[in-house]
Amino acid sequence: MPTQEIATLGGGCFWCLEAVYDEMEGVLSVESGYMGGSVPNPSYQAVCTGTTGHVEVVQVTFDSEITSFREILEVFFAIHDPTTLDRQGNDAGTQYRSVIFYHGDSQKTEAEKIIRELDAEGVWRNPIVTELRPATAFYRAEDYHQEYFANNPRQPYCTYVVAPKVKKFREHFAAKLRRVT
Fold it and tell me: Which of 27, 105, 120, 137 is 20–30 Å from 150 (CA)?
């Protein structure tokens, strides 16, 4: 029986994060959804207005005996820009903010630690602005958002935005790729 843990992360469009974590060893499931807002059961259209307070997130369920929360965060910080407030590339708005919704004190502590380390190393020219917030209600996104990249690899956004992030993950985290048997 796997030792399951949940990580909830917002780093721009959820399609990018989902596509990467789908390929990571130790990840049991990834769901795209919304967290952090004030409206119950928000729709994608409502979240896109920026008025609900929700962030596009992925909820990653992983086997912590195979991959650690720290490794989940190392991938997270490598595949998006944590130095831009409410923006990832051309995606702008509060729903695209960089945020870690932590599930317990140990996740919060680990996230604080890795942010301090990355800032001290000067990995980015600007400081990390990733928010740390306690996890709240997770609302699963509409079905057409689930496995979006897998189902729409030739869609222009997937070709020009998602695919390069998946490629970067494959190149930089080859040891963490899911083993297909």
Answer: 137
Q: Indicate if 16 belongs to the active site.
A: no
DSSP, res 159:
I
pLDDT digits (tens, 9 = 90+) for 84-134: 988 887 788 888 999 999 999 999 999 999 999 999 998 889 999 999 999
Contacts of 14 (CB under 8 A, 6+ apart): 32, 33, 56, 57, 58, 141, 145
Give alpha helix (H) positions in 90-173: 105-121, 148-151, 156-157, 163-172
Give the whole-angstrom CA distance, residue 161 versus residue 137: 28
Classify strands 131-134 and 98-102 as parallel, antiparallel or unpaired: parallel
Per-residue confidence (pLDDT) for residue 179, from 0 to 100: 59
